[in-house]
Each structure stands twice: as C-alpha cells, then as structure tokens.
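Comment thread on ticket #2218

A.B. wrote:
> Attaching the input chain for the structure job we discussed in standup.
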Amino acid sequence: MKKIKGKALILLLLLVVVAGGAGYMFLGGGIPVETALVDKGPVILTVSETGQIEAEGTIRLTAKSMVDVKKLYVKEGDSVQAGTLLLEGDEGTVEYDISALRAQSSGLSAQLATADSLAKKTRTLYESGAISQAEYDEARTAAAQLRSQLNALNYTIRGLQAGTDSQGVKSPISGAVTELWAKEGEILQPGMPVAEISPLKSYQVKLQMIASEASSVQVGDPVTLKQKDQVLTEESQVLWVSKKAKEVLSAIGIAQKRVEVTVRVPDSLTNLILGDDVEVIIKTDETEQVMRVPEKAVFEMEGKKYVYLVDGNRSRLLEIGTGLEGDDWIEVITGLKEGDQVILSPGNDLKDGQKLLLR
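C.D. wrote:
> Ran it. Output below, let me know if you need it in another format.
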C-alpha cells in the first residue's frame, strides 16, 4: 500500500474538516447568526464634534491703527480689574472683537422672547389645572436663566466702550489675561491682536460643525460633554448656532464648509482648562416608547428597508416601514411586532428561507 506523504496528508485532513463542517451546516446546524428582539423604547439621534472650552464673555483686543508699545504692565495669567492699564503706547487705538458677542446677544434675545411667551402660556395652563406646579416652575426658571445670561452678556458689551485713553490701553472688563501678544518695543500693525481677557466666571464650548450636520442642530438641543470617554455632564444645551457657514481648513488641510456652534456649560462643572478639547454630543431628535429594531438588523434594497426575521429555525425576508433612524435603533412603523426575533448584521450569504443556527 502506498503511503501518503506529509503535505498531502495535511491537505486531505483539511478537506475532510471543511466538508464535515459544510455537511453539518447543511444537514443539521444551519447558518450561524446573532439575533435580537424587537422591543419598545426610545430612539435617539445625535451628532457629535470636538469643541474647545472657552470662558463666556471673553474679548480679544486688536490694534485699530499702528501702536508703538512702550511698556507692558501685565503678563499672561495676571488677574485684572476693569480699567486696569495693560500697556502704554504711542498713538494708535485698540478695538474689541465683539461681533460674536452681539450675535449671541441677538440669539439669546430671541430665545428669551420664546421662553417668556411659553412661561405666560404655562401660567394660564397651571391656573386652569392643566399642568403641575413643577411644570410651571420649570418654564419660569428657564426664562429667568436666559434673562440672567442676556443681562450678563449685554453688560460685557457695554463695558467694551472703554479701553483706551491718553495713558494707554486699559482692560474693559474684569478677568484674567489669557493671551498676550503685544511685546515691549514692538510696533503693532492694524488688525494685529493685542491681548485676550477672559472673565473666568462661566464657560462655554465652541465648535465648528460640518454644515450638513449643523442644519439639524437647534438652540436648546440637549448636549452631553465627554472627555477621554468620561461623561463630564449631561446638563448642557446648545446656546447659539451661526446662520452662516464658513470655509475652514481641516487638520489634514482639506477645506470644508463649517458652522460655528456654541454650547453652554453648567456652572456645576468646574476645574475646566481653557482651550482644552471636549467631545460634544448633541441630541437632535428623539422618540419615546416606540416600536424599535436594532440598527444593525436593517438593510436597504431598491430603496426599501428590510430585515431577516427568525421564523421557526429559518430566515424570512421581511419588508418594514421605518420612522426615526437613530444612532443604535430604528423606529418601526409597520412589519414587526414586539418580541419578534431579527437577525443582526446579515451577510450576503444569507438568503430567504435558509436554516439557521441561533447563537
């Protein structure tokens, strides 16, 4: 009898194993699949972007005309009061970049008008017994918080009217010198930055969002802030969304249309570092207690949505009607009922009516 050589023997064994596995799948096991149950619960849609922590009310001083810096009276990190002399210089004046502050003030004014109107309506509903005291108080508190933010912002803007006199450049607000570009003996040209003053009382996050994603973001949307996969707070909200997209270069040098968004940081969140990166997750839509199916179970064919339903121990291709498509779940309008078992991440090898091996 002729002996089988080593390599040939290994190849023969592999063929036996493969054939045996295929035979098991065909005769008894079926195609192995992972499944999940259709249930009821929330469907949440979010967008996320990285932003930077800033102090609310921060102002940047820039040279309006040529300034010959003779002497500096502060250094970066110093605390200053409104009216503190920052530098002494010959000629020239300094202006303040407050266009963003004015835009935020306009946005807050619109929010406050809406909140005041809602508070009036809820008062009527409360007096008629249609809503609870807690709901009425919540509406009044929201309006009061917006009014406080608007007053503080307008106070900062009014303070920017002062800043230069015959003695030199003064700080228009109280805070800390968080950036100082001016140097003694240097001549600042028009438009060059002089200093940045931050109040360090309350904070916000600024981010540049891709225009297509920013279109779904609205003022008041709830926000979760995370850093290094750790949740910092779930009590933030969108404070301002720019009405204009601007071209911004990405980290790899690609020009993109992006929209500036400002997120409020709750006062309870402390120990923040200005300029630090933070992950911003904005909830743009949500449905509560609806029929839902895992996003990984749904796929599209010819413009229609389908799932593979577990029918006994076989697969059944089923068309479904969907509503809100969230991050992890998709709302089911038609085709499925609570408790139905669907196949997750079905591969191209899965066909209608195939025998299944449930895992």
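A.B. wrote:
> Thanks. Noting for the ticket: Residues 113 and 143 are 9 Å apart (CA to CA).
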